[in-house]
Design a protein that fits this description.
Elements: E1 4-7, E2 14-15, H1 17-29, H2 38-44, H3 49-60, H4 68-82, E3 88-89, H5 93-102, E4 106-114, H6 115-126, E5 133-137, H7 148-157, E6 164-168, H8 171-180, E7 183-187, H9 194-199, E8 204-206
Parallel strand pairs: 1-4, 1-6, 4-5, 6-7, 7-8
Antiparallel strand pairs: 2-3
Length: 217
């Protein structure tokens, strides 16, 4: 039996694309860029807030990032206030988390979303102290696809990579889980397609959160 599951946040636990689009569109609009579609934002995200803003600017024509510093500062200010804009857990997620807790399986979050906002989203959606470990983007920890965040969580839980499942929805997540040595599962309800998950060597791909329970043993 696996002893823990590490979850990605955006596109895995939470449907947050409305929040991401709302905040980033506002941040780059001042410079004459956007708005962009939710589908575009599904491919802008995944590698941290800085890369999100860089990709939005590039899509608008600022490929050199001339306005990056100003736009990124504005994005962070907007996101602090509106990180929960229309954010909801995906169907089946609360049931999955409850089932894992019933089985005494630890649950953790690893996100490239800034750490404070990661905590805010998790505690708003699921309650304070519901997750055993929450790890968002911090300067002291390399962002995904570095496995450093996974190793930090494992250290806090007192576990090894072969004792966990890692669940995410993007190529970044597949690279993160695989490089940490964890059994890595792709989530089809998130931001990316099956082909991307397969190309990045997902050990399994699931269409509904509760299917994860089949891989615990």
């Amino acid at each position: 039996m696996k002893k823990a599951v590490i979850f990605d946040l955006d596109g895995t636990l939470s449907d947050s694309i409305h929040s991401i689009k709302y905040c980033a569109d506002r941040a780059v609009a001042e410079f004459g860029y956007g708005p962009f579609t939710e589908q575009q934002y599904k491919y802008f995200v995944g590698d941290g807030a800085a890369n999100l803003v860089k990709r939005a600017l590039a899509a608008g024509g600022d490929e050199e990032g001339v306005h990056f510093d100003e736009a990124f500062a504005k994005y962070k200010d907007i996101f602090r206030e509106h990180c929960m804009y229309k954010v909801m857990p995906y169907e089946g997620i609360k049931e999955l988390l409850a089932a894992l807790k019933e089985k005494q399986v630890k649950i953790a979050v690893l996100s490239n979303k800034p750490h404070i906002e990661t905590i805010n989203v998790i505690e708003t959606l699921f309650g304070k102290d519901y997750f055993d470990v929450i790890q968002g983007q911090e300067d002291s920890v390399a962002i995904k696809p570095s496995p450093e965040g996974v190793f930090r969580i494992l250290n806090r839980l007192g576990l090894t990579a072969d004792e966990i499942l890692y669940l995410g929805d993007t190529s970044t997540d597949m690279k993160t889980g695989k490089s940490a040595g964890a059994f890595t599962i792709g989530a089809l309800w998130g931001f990316r397609e099956r082909e991307e998950l397969e190309q990045n060597h997902a050990d399994a791909i699931i269409e509904h959160p509760l299917e994860l329970l089949e891989y615990l043993s």
